Amino acid sequence: MNRSTQTTQNPTMPRKLICIGDPNTLPADVFEGEVLVVDTSVAVVDQLDDPSIEGVWIARDQLPKISELRGISQSGIMLRDMPEGVALLDSELRVLWANRRLIEWSGRDEPSVGTNFYEMLSNPEIMGPDFCPFHTALATGDESNSTLHTEDSRYFQVHAAPMVHPVHSRQLVVTVSDITEEILQQNKLAAIHQAGRELADLRPTEIFMMEVDERIDLLKENIRHYLSNLLNFNIIEIRLLEQATGNLMPLLSVGIDQDAADRQLIAHPQGNGITGYVAASGVSYICHDVVNDPLFIPGVADSRSSLTVPLMLHDQVLGTINIESPEINAFGDSDLQFLEIFARDIAFALNTLELLVAQKANTAQQSCDAIHGAVALPVDEILNDAVNVMEQYIGHSSEVVDRLKRILRNARDIKQTIQQIGQRMTPLEAIPVGGESAHHVSLRGKRILVVDADEQVREDAHQLLERYGCIVETAHKGDEAVLMVRGSDDSTIYDVIISDIKLPDYSGYQLMLRLGKLMDYVPMVLMTGFGYDPGHSIVKARQNGLHAKGVLFKPFRLDQLIDVVKTILDFNEEVKTSGVVPPKPVDSDAPAESKPASDGDSAADRS
Q: Response regulatory domain location, by residue (predicted)?
């Protein structure tokens, strides 16, 4: 096939005809000098730039099949309209052909044939991994990849593959993908992880200098900053779950109406909004349209959608984060993913802060316990000596008695001051479970007298009972205990008296009898080893007013000690409320009381 010589031939330029296949198939009027023979139709493309080419002749045996022609036509259309960019480059990286999408990304109105590929995309930054992907493909014959970053903050991934045809081996087929959204997502994830690490990243000097409230305020400000500036959330509410009560307590509110921020919510799927549902289930929730969501309770008047995720530490729900927007369908899967990741970081930050508080509280408590333990027994010795001396001066020198009473008060104040300092330095939220439960509140401020010759028992009494707020004083023997009770006034009267059944001067039962002469009701507890009660003292004590549960068998556990003390305290309250005082102990062996004790027992204990 060729163009008509009468209409197209330029008399000053010789005409040429490309022939694909056997030239003998050409028409008779075509001269041999006018024919350019090529082997395949692919080679025609390289010759068509010559302006003297008048036409192309294809021998019948070289004609492609109809299906091939259709495929060639469709391939051209597909390449032109592909959603990714495609270009053909020469060895100088000039664009020989580009499809519509690549031209669109270049910001040009027409094909950039002859333009350098990088110039077509405004000389983007090459981010690797291969910083010379086109030269690598040309030099090695292998495919190469790289990422480009344009000045308008778009990211493209380029894939260069050399042409496999020998004639076109110095050309490259380049495909270009827009990965801007993917890169931005990765950058955002990296920023979120970095922000999460910085939430509770406190230097040792900061930990030392900052109080608990200051650390909490810093954490809240960091959370607000990152949620607003990094995730672009402006209406924020964070609540923490009280594990014991199920209450969801406000921690942080930004852009939330005050009434909504003060609203009482619990972790329950019904009647507590989406926040209560998420806290109860531990499952995130996207509300696309608040008008059609029965769970939604608005935090601001113009809210139209919300996103709520749980604060999870391993499998435990610590609280919730609620985000709201004035737009319908404002939150999608990526928002959910980002907030869930950041919520885990917040949960770990809260846990780290709690551990720091607990560690500081533990250190403070240990310091106070060490100081208190060092002075507790010496102060008890001062108390014992003071009441002993005071007993001798009563009726003889009122001035000395008054001085001794001041010594008693000051000595007791020393211990109480140390104890109170320890309590102030130990935040309530850092006290171990059981240390400040409602079950033990009744122990706080109660005065306990412990009578035992064993110093270790007296030390343990201070350590075990004072951790619950009890005021503990000790005595070595019965006579000291009697003087301690006799020297007490209304403000220092003992709520519970714990005595060993075997004292250096007489038995615990005899002590109970003596105290019965000083007190309307003796709140007594007797300690004994298993099987040790040669004089049936416990039986006699119970017959004379000892509470049925007022016995401790050595060695006893802390919970047993606390239960017995609490039982006596509860019975004390019943006595005060009812006004019915139990009968005083009656000493059936009274004549024997003046006799000296022998081997820790007395005639009063012998049946």
A: 447-569
